[in-house]
Amino acid sequence: MAQVIGVISLKGGVGKTSTVVSLGASLAKDFSQRVLIVDANYSAPNLGHHFGLTNPEKTIQDVLSDKTDIKDVIHEHEDSGLHIIPAAMIARKVQDPFALKKKLNQIKKYYDYILIDSSPSLNEEIVSTMAASDQLFVVTTPDTPTLESTMKAIRIARQKSIPITGLILNKVRGKNFETSIEDIEKLTGVPVIAKIRDHDHALEAVAKQHPVTMLKEKSPVSIEYKKLAAAITGKHYSDPRFHAKVADAFRRQPEKQVINRHILYYS
Ligand SMILES: Nc1ncnc2c1ncn2[C@@H]1O[C@H](COP(=O)(O)OP(=O)(O)OP(=O)(O)O)[C@@H](O)[C@H]1O
Ligand SMILES: [Mg+2]
Predict the structure, then answer these.
(1) How high is the pLDDT of residue 267?
(2) What is the pTM of this model?
(3) CA nearest 130: which of 164, 157, 111?
(4) Which of 23, 101, 143, 168 stands the most exposed, by the fewest C-beta atoms within 10 Å?
(5) pLDDT for residue 95
(6) Positions of the chain with pLDDT under 70
(7) Pocket flag, ligand 1, residue 16 (CB < 6 Å)
(8) Which architecture characterizes domain 3-266 according to CATH?
(9) Domain residue ranges in the chain
């Protein structure tokens, strides 16, 4: 049975879709997992764009409105082995926030992981992702306005008793004005499980419609997603970059996100 991981935030543009694409591609391609990714950002979807699926004929909305069987809207991405359910660009109110859960339950047995790309809107759209998820990853950036939204998202998930496994800290520039991992964890009470650099490779991958983990295998962005995928599956992954091996050898203790990732395999 698949583990269903909802990738959420209450702030737009922080990197939910990029995370679903990159983590999903790494789980499928690098770690041979059966992975489905689902666009649940119903009013502003763009998961398909990351794979050149710009105007898909059949979408998640067809499934939720009982027009189509969920198995008939699954697109296969040959290069990665990922299965994708895109959404259509039609703003229609979500009638039943539990419909996504019910539909995914029909196909859970075919996958190891199902990743849901959430909407950032505080309405039935995000509730639909939360309700369908066994656990949540919350994406945030290290700035105060985003962290405020992140704390709100965490509060809502806790009220609904959906387990939050960790924070994906994205678009990190390494500047001293950014909030540190330690402070972010103190504020939110949630461990940071990945720290992803702000990097052009993330943007290039979208432009070239290919997951960054495949397009730029040794990009710092890709390596961090691969480490996260390894931790989730409990498999070994060794950073192939020479300078990273040297830096690791001289580090007195592992970085916080590396330590935190040990919890993942058991969650
Ligand atoms: N690590 C990164 N470095 C640089 N740019 C990034 C990074 N991650 C994501 N981006 C870029 O930021 C933009 C927003 O990313 P993305 O679409 O993944 O966010 P989102 O949270 O899904 O947004 P929305 O809430 O609108 O769905 C995109 O242009 C993406 O390429
Ligand atoms: Mg998105």
Answers:
(1) 65
(2) 0.96
(3) 157
(4) 143
(5) 84
(6) 91, 266-267
(7) yes
(8) 3-Layer(aba) Sandwich (3.40)
(9) 3-266
